[in-house]
Amino acid sequence: MRWRFIVVHHTAGDSGNLEYYRALHKKKHGWPDIAYHFLINNGSMNTSIGQIEVSGLWEQRTLNYSTKISYVNYLGIAVALVGNFENHDVHPLQYEALIQLLANLSMRYSIPPERIVGHGELQNTQCPGKHLDMSRVRKDVAAAIQRKREAD
Ligand SMILES: [Zn+2]
Separation of 36 CA from ligand 1 center, angstroms? Predict the structure, then answer.
């Protein structure tokens, strides 16, 4: 199985959607596509809060990694939230969408919550921001998985 971990990002901008960031990543970095597999919207640009968009990078399993360091998106599923969480908290609906998506991916691809990491835990970056507490995310994902298992 290719997927070893899940990497959580923020976009560092408070306005955007998949189309917007795809265009930005192509233009700004010269990448072939957006650098994320999943994008969790924040309500800007005609999206709804917590709405999840799936990129072509995920659907086509393209090997054009669209990152500076290719292993990050080769071994890791890239999940990004629209917003800048250095500056403010994550909206509760957006946070809940994150936890549910991470729990589903974790179960589907047998990636334990300990292997869900913030981008900044792998590389020297502030992404996904100090207001997104990754140890809390891991705990909440573990609890969500437990609830899903009990519901079966
Ligand atoms: Zn990042």
Answer: 9
What is the extent of the structural domain holding 74? Answer: 5-151
Per-residue pLDDT of 35-51, as tens digits, reads 899 999 999 999 999 99
Interval between CA 150 and ligand 1 midpoint (Å):
33
The CA 128 to ligand 1 mean position distance, Å, reads 6
Amino acid at 123: Q
> For the segment 91-112, what is each residue's pLDDT rounded down to a tens digit?
999 999 999 999 999 999 999 9
Q: How many domains does the chain have?
A: 1
Residue 9 contacts residue 51 (beta carbons within 8 Å) = no
Give residue 17 CA to ligand 1 midpoint distance, Å. 16
CATH value at residue 42 = 3.40.80.10
